[in-house]
Amino acid sequence: MTQLFSKTKIKELLGLLNAGSNIAIVTHVNPDGDAIGSAIAWSNFLKEKGISSTIIVPNHFPDFLKWIKGSEDILVHFNQKDRCERILKQSDLLFCCDFNRLSRLDALGEFIETLDAKKVLIDHHIGVEEKDFSMVFSKVPISSTCEIVYRIIRQITGKKHVSPQIAEPLYAGIMTDTGAYTHSCSPELFRIVADLMESGISREKIHSEVYSSFSVNRMRLMGYCINRIEVLPEYRTAYISLTREELEKFQFEPGDTEGFVNIPLNIRDVVLSVFFTESREGFIKLSLRSVGEFSVDGMSRKYFNGGGHRNASGGKSFVSLDETVSFFKSILPEFKDELAAAEN
Ligand code: 5GP
Ligand code: MN
Fold it and tell me: Does ligand 1 come within 6 angstroms of the Cβ of 311?
């Protein structure tokens, strides 16, 4: 297997890991399967080396990830600000999983910026803000941060198998970040997945915990979203927009709309899908997905204060939902040729 990182870099990382250190692991806001999976797997790896660590996330994470062993110990900054900040202040080493700049952690990021602790990034997003980190383990276009964590562990141990406590969260993160193996999958990734399966996990159990655990409300919300899809055939684009009121009607829980942005991509000829929701905090949250060469990262960076990956990005807008949707429609002509050329 190709070694993603040089021996010197791995040595440097090992030099930072000693049992006496106070270690915290942080992820991006609205943590997804890859963020939670990579953080737990890395924490469990450290634990197996006799090193303890605390995982801190900016805000709530979805219920469909709460079956992962270790997720019950995760601290949420939004709920326990003082406790989290006390722990972070005492940390001398911070692992940053699944994001490319501290601004992706909102208020928690602003706090972390003031800390002297060494910050080690483990990530796979485009456009790392190098000044935010002391050391960077990032490769684009690797499928997921979980794949990167696996490859770092393998470089350290020289073994292809890991314990089930590491394999399970890694598998969950890889599965969710690749849309259950529909994109960003290299032959090497499938070899890794085989190694994870041989490490003693139940693929069926993980799949069912993550994908077959809808509440009735979530299922009905999905049906509602499907009915609300707007298609703009001229631009091979489809979008869904939901007000806070609409979300509340379905007793929306964090994570309930996860993955819904992918649904319109199942319409023939649609290569761009955008999901707009009114967030609790008041801004409009965008999720963007594309197929083929069309880059939603480019679109979101330019117009929606965000970014991510070529085919999966997020963004924010600070005008109303209607204005955001109108603005989105107004920029589409600029992308018409690119959208027409995108292969699907
Ligand atoms: P989602 O639509 O699920 O929120 O985000 C899709 C992908 O883009 C995820 O990998 C997420 O981490 C990333 N992402 C979401 N929002 C932003 C953002 O504002 N900036 C950057 N760089 N990445 C983002
Ligand atoms: Mn990821």
Answer: no
Lowest mean pLDDT among 19-23, 175-179, 275-279: 19-23
CA distance 155 to 23: 21
**Topology of the domain covering 7-210:** inorganic pyrophosphatase (n-terminal core) (3.90.1640)
CATH number of 216-341: 3.10.310.30
Rounded to the nearest integer, the mean pLDDT of the chain is 97
Mutate to test the pocket of ligand 1, among 26, 57, 313, 318 (most ligand atoms within 8 A of CB): 313
Ligand with minimal distance to 100 CA: 1
For the segment 264-308, what is each residue's pLDDT rounded down to a tens digit?
999 999 999 999 999 988 999 999 999 999 999 999 999 999 999
DSSP structural state of residue 250: T
Tokens of residue 225, six digits = 């979203």
Which pairing describes strands 312-317 and 307-308: parallel, antiparallel, or unpaired? antiparallel
List the domain boundaries for the chain. Answer: 7-210, 216-341
